[in-house]
Amino acid sequence: MAKERQRRPVLSITQQAEMFKKLSNPAVKYATDIVIKTPDVYAEAMTKAQVINTMINQRKERFAPLITDAKSTLQGIRQLEADVLEPLKIAKARLAPKLLKFSDDLELKAEKERLKLEAEAKAKQDKLDKAAEKKAEKAKDKGDTDGAEKIMNTVPQVPVAPPKVFVPKVGRAYKKVTYKAEVTNAREYIKHVMTLPDPENYLLVNMRPLNDLSKSTEGKAVKPGIRFFKDKTMVPGSA
What we know:
This protein is mainly alpha-helical. The chain is built from five helices and no strands.
């Protein structure tokens, strides 16, 4: 019977990643330890850098189809989710403002009712207070100061009736209030920001057009508050 050929075990993507990391350790050590002071060492290091670049490209090629498949699968799942949620989001978007309007209307009505009841209670209280003051004055006129004081201390307090209008509480629903800001005049806003001690905390600079300007002028552009420069990196290519 012919000897069966041994099959190499199939490594999972996680196992492959661990293997690739271990194979990369010598390159990391070399790049850390190397000191370039002669042309020969420079040539050697450049060759090593090209090998490293090739290894990077090989690793990317290995993971590229996996990433593509994962993106495709994720995109499909997200699209399915979006399709499922879309009608419910439409329903929620249409219903929420109606609920909010009714709730606001009820709260406004309840506030008006509360103010009305408070005014009525105050009017009744004022009437009782004035009547008590008249009685107290008469008692004082007769020399009965204790009686006058007792009259004022025993004036009944008119309670404020609660509004009959109320907003029903249903489940865990609540009204969410979010406070926001909107820039309506960029120039005026910038003027204001520049008066602050920390203007950089209130401005987010779009660096893309500035970098494009630096590129078009080879880093020689001049603008107040901006440093244009060139940044060098070595691109070794592949082996």
